[in-house]
Amino acid sequence: MKKHNFSAGPCILPDEVLKKASEAILNFNDDNLSLIEISHRSESFVNVIEKARSLALELLGLENKGYKALFLQGGASLEFLMVAYNLLNKKAAYLNTGTWSNKAITEAKAFGELIEVGSSKDKGFSYIPKEYNIPEDVDYFHCTSNNTVAGTQMKTFPETNVPLVCDMSSDIFSRQLDFEKFDLIYAGAQKNMGPAGATLVVIKEEILGKVERHIPSMLNYQVHIDKDSMFNTPSVFAVYVSMLTLQWLKDLGGIPFIEKVNAKKADLLYSEIDRNPFFEGIVAKEDRSIMNATFNITDDSLKEAFDKMWKEAGINGLNGHRSVGGYRASMYNALPLYSVQVLVDVMQEFERNQK
Ligand SMILES: *Cc1c(COP(=O)(O)O)cnc(C)c1O
């Protein structure tokens, strides 16, 4: 039986997506060729990437609103750099909510003045800063919607007149947001969409073309837009699997449907963390992530016993990020509610064993 996969990323994908993807490796579209041995300019593959791009916009409710969807390479980490390359003329504002924001800030610093408008570094990134001001004269504001490592999530986004740029790597397509508020959204595929190797970038085209520097072709969003996300060979397999996952999500009922399932999973687990005296949450309750629940065991001497139990129950990927320790249960879209129930049952059995 397949394990209950709480891995933070690369992460769980729907069974039916994995099945279709493995079939396509051997014989794609009944063409008697593999998906990964055909030209990316063949009609079969062009249809795939066009479908993936349109599904992404459709699920976010951004069709015909001046947005373009691209599937690029280099991960979200390259977007840290590309965002600044393409948008930062003089100054940009960043919200620092943890590991990934920090990396985005480090990359962007090479391009201009960075204003860290807020930071939760003082308390180990265990909350989302709320009172901060975004200067009117910055080129854009950058934030991270979900902090995969710390387990916090922005529940609201600031009202601002400057372009809003967001790293949504670990919660894209998981909850309803007013996506039109955002001018650029990026996400590495491997958290909630597909295998590693593709990065989804959704851009409002009108924000481009405002920097004076020369931008190398591969790092230039406009070049990728003009070439319909086919400036060079895209990562065909990652794009195909992402397309299948987006189709899976659409068939289920899209973001409104999955949001309810995700809320149920998170409620189930956080209720147990709060109830069970052997466990405790790590971050501010109002900022808890629906995707990545971080928690500690209250008595470290019992860690080994607990680890043995969840592993025996067929659970995978529960260890916290190496920089934080403790536990982290990542409950991405494809994780069934049943898997969360299995984890909660293990936590309850663990409690009973201590009596
Ligand atoms: C995983 C992650 C990244 C890094 O993604 P790569 O694709 O490995 O570059 C960036 N931001 C967030 C929020 C992440 O969860």
From TrEMBL:
Residues reported in the UniProt entry to bind pyridoxal 5'-phosphate: 76-77, 100, 148, 167, 190, 232-233
InterPro entries: Aminotrans_V_dom, Aminotrans_V_PyrdxlP_BS, Pser_aminoTfrase, PyrdxlP-dep_Trfase, PyrdxlP-dep_Trfase_major, PyrdxlP-dep_Trfase_small
Record PROSITE patterns: AA_TRANSFER_CLASS_5
Compartments where found: Cytoplasm
Cofactor note: Binds 1 pyridoxal phosphate per subunit.
Residue ranges of domain Aminotransferase class V in the record: 5-335
Residues that, per the record, bind L-glutamate: 41
Recorded catalytic activity of this chain's protein: O-phospho-L-serine + 2-oxoglutarate = 3-phosphooxypyruvate + L-glutamate; 4-(phosphooxy)-L-threonine + 2-oxoglutarate = (R)-3-hydroxy-2-oxo-4-phosphooxybutanoate + L-glutamate
Pfam families, alphabetized: Aminotran_5
Pathway(s): Cofactor biosynthesis; pyridoxine 5'-phosphate biosynthesis; pyridoxine 5'-phosphate from D-erythrose 4-phosphate: step 3/5; Amino-acid biosynthesis; L-serine biosynthesis; L-serine from 3-phospho-D-glycerate: step 2/3
EC number annotated for this UniProt entry: 2.6.1.52
Family: Belongs to the class-V pyridoxal-phosphate-dependent aminotransferase family. SerC subfamily.
Annotated HAMAP family: SerC_aminotrans_5 (MF_00160)
Role summary: Catalyzes the reversible conversion of 3-phosphohydroxypyruvate to phosphoserine and of 3-hydroxy-2-oxo-4-phosphonooxybutanoate to phosphohydroxythreonine.
Record's protein name: Phosphoserine aminotransferase
